[in-house]
Structure formats: structure tokens, C-alpha cells
Amino acid sequence: MNRGKFMKHKIVFFDMDGTLYQTENDVIQESALDAIQTLKDKGYIVCAATGRPLNQMKLILQRVQFDYYVLINGSYILDKDFQEIGSYPILQGNVNDLVNFSKKHETGLMFHFGDATYIYNNFYPMYDFCKYCNVLDSLFYDPSQSYHLRHKAFNAVVLTKDKKLVDQFMETHPNLRNDLINVKTDGFCFDIFNADNDKSKGIEMILEKTGFTWKDAICFGDSTNDIHMLKKADIGVAMGNASDFVKSYANFATTSTYDNGIYNAVTKILKDE
């Protein structure tokens, strides 16, 4: 029986890495899959909200399908059939500047486009980063560094041993912002995207489409790029493996992604519904 209309909340958004997905060992706990199925059975709309592009969701989608996808930190939004609802690409001038910056300083550089991810510079350090994230089969290499001239780029990943270089670049590009990615790489690895863009902006596009509001929403996350959605949702759930800083923006913290965190939180929420 579909009981979603009787529940207080209507729509649930899950971060992937460190929340639903154990990045380093390609594990989604069975208890988490059971919890998601329970939500679906009760009529909730279940959505992904991730920094990943669609082409790096393959291993996850083999185990769970979502009703909507907020991808690339809120800049690429798709429905369940992977049709684009809307997008917020990086301005072409900023993309060109990132390419030139990476060439000049010999940093690692990778772009997420709507349908593909291309490494532009310092291939092997970027390769090692992607190997850690289990996304090697979705990578391409563009030695000509020209793919961005024909396609919209939504996100850049920069890898450098000199953090000051990125700081200086960001100072001259106030309409961009960067997040330090917490991964085991040889150097500092940054996501770079539009300053006004984050997962909550992509979520708002889905809320508008479905006729819901933040009061109808439950969000799960573990990282700094989840803070706005945790804060805006009626129920924001931080994973046990999140920092205290991230947890401070959530309504409550569950156990870690390694210890049935999704299942325990969903069980708690459904008791209160």
C-alpha cells in the first residue's frame, strides 16, 4: 500500500560518497538498500544528491535506482529516465582560465561534462584519484584539451601540491568556489564550480517540479558540500563519520556509513512519521 500521502515528509535526498556509498571499497550496505526500498514502498520520492556526474554513478545504479538525480554538486539535474531537468554550467571564460592555469602550473585537471569526464593534464595523478573513487571505467583523456570548447563543463577537479596556487586563482575568480576533497591523493584535490551553486540549488529545482517544499524534505549527508541541504531540509541527517562541523548543521547524527547509518536513521524517522 502506498502510504506516502499520509506521511509528514514526501521526498528524501541521499548523498553518495561517505553516506550511502563506501567509496574506498565499493560497498552499499544491504541494510541501506532495505531502508531505501522501505521508503519507496511507503510512497516517498527517493533522490540522489551527489558531487558525482552521471557517468560515475554506474556501480551505484547497479544496486539502486532513484526518482531524481542532483548531480555534480547541484549543477546537473535529471529525472528518473536521465532526461535533463536543468543545469548550471561553468561560464566558458572561467573554463578557459582553468585550462590555462593548469597548463601554466602543471596541476592535475579534470572536467565533469554532462555525459563524460575528461582528464586534461597530469594524467597519472588524476588517474590515481579516480582509482580511489572506483570510477576508472568512466574516464577519458583529452590530450588536445579541447572538449570544453564543444560541451558544457559543470565542474573541474584540480590536483596540486601547492594549495596557494588554487587560492590565488580563486581570488581572481569570485564567481567560482572550491571545496577541498577529502581523499588519499598525492597533494591537495579541489572541486571547483560556480560560487552560487550547491546541492541545495539543484534540489530546489526538483522541489519546484514536484510541488514540494523544504518542509517536505529529508536529506542525508556527511561532508561540507552537504551543509546547505542539511540545514534547509525539515530533517537533516548527518552520518556518524561526518565532522562535528557538518553535524552541527543537521537535526541529528546517525551511526556511520559503515555501521548501518542509513537504516538506523530511516528507522528512527519512520517511527516519528
Can you offer a commentary on this structure?
It is a single chain. Helices cover 30% and strands 24% of the residues. By secondary structure, it is of the alpha/beta class. The chain has two domains: 4-87 and 198-272, 3-Layer(aba) Sandwich (Rossmann fold); 92-194, Hypothetical Protein, Haloacid Dehalogenase-like Hydrolase, Chain: A, domain 2, CATH 3.30.1240. It has an eight-stranded mixed β-sheet with strand order 5-4-3-2-1-12-13-14. It has a six-stranded mixed β-sheet with strand order 8-7-6-9-11-10, sandwiched between helices. Helix 4 (123-132) links the parallel strand 7 and strand 8. It is globular, with a radius of gyration of 18 Å. The model has no long low-confidence stretch (mean pLDDT 91). One of its GO terms (molecular function) is magnesium ion binding.
Based on helices, strands and strand pairing, what is the structural class? alpha/beta
Annotation, overall tally of beta strands? 14
CATH superfamily of the largest domain: HAD superfamily/HAD-like
Helix percentage range: 25-40%
Q: What is the number of helices?
A: 9
Supply Rg.
18 Å
Distance between the termini: 16 Å
Label the CATH architecture of the largest domain.
Answer: 3-Layer(aba) Sandwich
**Which CATH top level class of the largest domain fits?**
Alpha Beta
Q: Would you tell me which CATH topology of the largest domain applies? A: Rossmann fold
Overall shape: it is globular
Overall tally of structural domains = 2
Q: Report the sheet with the most strands, covering strand number, pairing sense and barrel closure.
A: 8 strands, mixed
Strand order of the largest sheet: 5-4-3-2-1-12-13-14
Give the amount of beta strand, in percent: 15-25%
Low-confidence stretches: none
